[in-house]
Amino acid sequence: MAGTLILEAVAILLALPVVSQAYDGLTAATGSYLVGLAVVFILLAGLQGRPWAIWVNLAMQVVVIAGWALHGAVGFIGLIFAGVWLLILYLRSEVKRRQERGLLPGQQPPPE
Question: Mind telling me which residue stretches traverse the membrane in this protein (predicted)?
Answer without folding.
Answer: 30-47, 76-93
